[in-house]
Amino acid sequence: MNENEIGAMVVNCAVRLHRDLGPGLLESVYEVILAKQLQTAGLKVKVQAPIPIEFERMRFSEAFRADIIVEGRVILELKSVEKITRAHRKQVLTYLKLTGMKLGFILNFGAATMREGIARIINGTIT
User: Fold this and answer.
1) pTM value?
2) What is the CATH number of the domain that holds 101?
3) What's the per-residue H, E or C state across the chain?
4) Residue pLDDT, tens place only, 2-49
5) Choice between 12 and 53, residue whose per-residue pLDDT is larger
6) What is the mean pLDDT of residues 108-121?
7) Residue 103 domain boundaries
8) Contact, 44 vs 71, CB < 8 A?
9) What is the tally of structural domains in the chain?
10) d(CA 63, CA 44)
11) Is residue 25 included in any domain, yes or no?
């Protein structure tokens, strides 16, 4: 399964979740439910996955925690805010660069509709 196929499944699950629960809950609520939905769909999911980095010969075992990593290929950053900012986009792009992954999503469950709350972030070319 490639990144785009995983992404399509993620978006479908997120839209359904937002439609059923609505906006305004804590990010952690959406995180737990979305992770379970993705697992039920047959995908491998890691929640709050620690991501190590190396910088100038120093290794940091937990440089950051990814909200959700799907199939070891797609990073999901969940938000429950009024709108996605440029800082959120830069954050996910940095995560992608540090991990070598190519696709990430910001899923903002605070948006009026999930379609408004999805940002697709690409690091390099996806086939």
Assistant:
1) 0.92
2) 3.40.1350
3) CCHHHHHHHHHHHHHHHHHHHCCCCCHHHHHHHHHHHHHHCCCCEEEEEEEEEEECCEEEEEEEEEEEEECCCEEEEEECCCCCCHHHHHHHHHHHHHHCCCEEEEEECCCCCHHHHEEEEECCCCC
4) 999 999 999 999 999 999 999 989 999 999 999 999 999 999 999 999
5) 12
6) 95
7) 3-122
8) yes
9) 1
10) 22
11) yes
